[in-house]
């Protein structure tokens, strides 16, 4: 602190000082030298000042409009997934770009308004301060408050009610632009909905849980079908009518030492083989099954000589069908897909963090950070020779959570 400035002012003397005097004293006490200071608009009612104010108002208005547009898009735009050829596909495609455009413009416009205001209204000033340490005294607190009040007064914002209101509105709406998307990330993990290919919304369930409601579930293979282009009197359009994305799997469809990713396929959504119907509309349900976050299963067919050395997990000795074993594809570490199967070593590999599981020992982890075996799906074949789920998984799928018991 400076030793050349009188610090022995009484409370009465400080109270008698004007805000300008306190602000000047505060700079002196803090060893600040104001080398240069000039107000932006020394002449009152300068037309240029009005134009500068209007430019700030325009930026704030744009920020407010874009923030409102963002909230409208976020709340009311059709966000549900639409596949190629479905009605509403075009609107769904623009959902994310619309969010990015409106939020980006809102933030940029607010930033431009602040920068414009600082450049056009805050007084030009060059100040130099010598660094010092020590606790604040009463005189420091008084003068600091005065400096803040002086900054408010010299900014002229206090007397610009329109700018104040619009800046406040823009600030509030900017906060909503930032906070609104976070609401979609907040979810009660135990709030149950109607059971479907996504489960019922809780962490215990998946599309395979439909089996517990009496639904016959086939092991469906994804054949990658996409919408087909049709031409008619009304013009050209894409359609998925009669198309199947998932088809049933027979044991003979998989070669020894082979692996196939399969998904739950409810009997009512089968559209292949002798049940094919060119008018069936099942493509969307098949896509829901594929997109179910815990539905993917690795169907592995072991070589006969390898199957003889399998070590079954206690209580799951009959979960396999002959040489066929079905393990959840969701890694028990952090939920990545265990996409790789090495037939020579019988290892299932998760490419994210290199966890490895032994297919000959109930999917037990043998390397990497995963600590639990891959859950095994009980499977069999039906009277038509198609592989089906004989039951649901008997333990939760994926990584750990607090309430998980296994």
From TrEMBL:
<dbReference type="GO" id="GO:0004497">
    <property type="term" value="F:monooxygenase activity"/>
</dbReference>
<dbReference type="InterPro" id="IPR017941">
    <property type="entry name" value="Rieske_2Fe-2S"/>
</dbReference>
<feature type="domain" description="Rieske">
    <location>
        <begin position="294"/>
        <end position="388"/>
    </location>
</feature>
<keyword id="KW-0813">Transport</keyword>
<keyword id="KW-0472">Membrane</keyword>
<keyword id="KW-0679">Respiratory chain</keyword>
<keyword id="KW-0812">Transmembrane</keyword>
<dbReference type="Pfam" id="PF19297">
    <property type="entry name" value="QcrA_N"/>
</dbReference>
<dbReference type="GO" id="GO:0016705">
    <property type="term" value="F:oxidoreductase activity, acting on paired donors, with incorporation or reduction of molecular oxygen"/>
</dbReference>
<keyword id="KW-0408">Iron</keyword>
<feature type="transmembrane region" description="Helical">
    <location>
        <begin position="166"/>
        <end position="186"/>
    </location>
</feature>
<dbReference type="Pfam" id="PF00355">
    <property type="entry name" value="Rieske"/>
</dbReference>
<keyword id="KW-1133">Transmembrane helix</keyword>
<dbReference type="GO" id="GO:0051537">
    <property type="term" value="F:2 iron, 2 sulfur cluster binding"/>
</dbReference>
<keyword id="KW-0249">Electron transport</keyword>
<keyword id="KW-0001">2Fe-2S</keyword>
<comment type="similarity">
    <text>Belongs to the Rieske iron-sulfur protein family.</text>
</comment>
<dbReference type="InterPro" id="IPR036922">
    <property type="entry name" value="Rieske_2Fe-2S_sf"/>
</dbReference>
<feature type="transmembrane region" description="Helical">
    <location>
        <begin position="97"/>
        <end position="118"/>
    </location>
</feature>
<dbReference type="InterPro" id="IPR045603">
    <property type="entry name" value="QcrA_N"/>
</dbReference>
<dbReference type="GO" id="GO:0046872">
    <property type="term" value="F:metal ion binding"/>
</dbReference>
<comment type="function">
    <text>Iron-sulfur subunit of the cytochrome bc1 complex, an essential component of the respiratory electron transport chain required for ATP synthesis. The bc1 complex catalyzes the oxidation of menaquinol and the reduction of cytochrome c in the respiratory chain. The bc1 complex operates through a Q-cycle mechanism that couples electron transfer to generation of the proton gradient that drives ATP synthesis.</text>
</comment>
<protein>
    <recommendedName>
        <fullName>Cytochrome bc1 complex Rieske iron-sulfur subunit</fullName>
    </recommendedName>
</protein>
<keyword id="KW-1015">Disulfide bond</keyword>
<dbReference type="InterPro" id="IPR014349">
    <property type="entry name" value="Rieske_Fe-S_prot"/>
</dbReference>
<keyword id="KW-0560">Oxidoreductase</keyword>
<dbReference type="GO" id="GO:0005886">
    <property type="term" value="C:plasma membrane"/>
</dbReference>
<keyword id="KW-0479">Metal-binding</keyword>
<keyword id="KW-1003">Cell membrane</keyword>
<keyword id="KW-0411">Iron-sulfur</keyword>
<feature type="transmembrane region" description="Helical">
    <location>
        <begin position="56"/>
        <end position="77"/>
    </location>
</feature>
């Amino acid at each position: 602190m400076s030793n050349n400035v009188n610090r022995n002012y009484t409370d009465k003397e400080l109270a008698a000082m004007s805000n300008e005097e306190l602000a000047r004293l505060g700079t002196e006490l803090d060893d600040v030298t104001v080398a240069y200071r000039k107000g932006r608009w020394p002449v009152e009612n300068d037309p240029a000042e009005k134009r500068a104010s209007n430019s700030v108002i325009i930026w704030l208005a744009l920020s407010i409009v874009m923030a409102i547009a963002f909230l409208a898009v976020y709340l009311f735009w059709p966000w549900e997934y639409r596949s190629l050829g479905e009605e509403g596909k075009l609107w769904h495609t623009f959902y994310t770009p619309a969010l990015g455009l409106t939020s980006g413009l809102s933030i940029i416009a607010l930033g431009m308004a602040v920068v414009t205001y600082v450049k056009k209204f805050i007084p030009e000033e060059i100040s130099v301060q010598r660094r010092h340490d020590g606790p604040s005294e009463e005189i420091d607190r008084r003068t600091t408050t005065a400096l803040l009040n002086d900054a408010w007064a010299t900014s002229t914002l206090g007397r610009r009610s329109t700018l104040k209101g619009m800046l406040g509105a823009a600030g509030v709406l900017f906060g909503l632009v930032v906070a609104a998307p976070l609401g979609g990330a907040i979810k009660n993990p135990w709030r149950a909905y109607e059971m479907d290919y996504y489960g019922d919304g809780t962490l215990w369930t998946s599309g395979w849980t439909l089996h517990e409601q009496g639904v016959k579930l086939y092991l469906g293979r994804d054949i990658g079908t996409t919408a087909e282009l049709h031409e008619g009197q009304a013009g050209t359009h894409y359609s998925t009518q009669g198309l199947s994305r998932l088809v049933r799997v027979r044991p003979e469809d998989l070669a020894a030492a082979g692996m196939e990713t399969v998904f739950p396929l409810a009997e009512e959504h089968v559209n292949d083989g002798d049940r094919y119907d060119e008018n069936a509309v099942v493509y969307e349900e098949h896509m829901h099954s594929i997109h179910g976050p815990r539905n993917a299963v690795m169907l592995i067919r072991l070589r006969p000589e390898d199957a003889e050395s399998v070590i079954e997990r206690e209580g799951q000795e009959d979960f396999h069908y002959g040489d066929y074993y079905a393990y959840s594809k969701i890694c028990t570490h952090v939920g990545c897909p265990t996409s790789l199967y090495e037939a020579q070593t019988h290892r299932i590999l998760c490419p994210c963090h290199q966890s490895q599981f032994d297919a000959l020992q109930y999917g037990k982890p043998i390397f990497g950070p995963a600590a639990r075996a891959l859950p095994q799906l009980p499977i069999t074949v039906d009277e038509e020779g198609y592989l089906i789920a004989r039951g649901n998984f008997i333990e939760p799928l994926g990584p750990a959570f607090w309430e998980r018991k296994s």
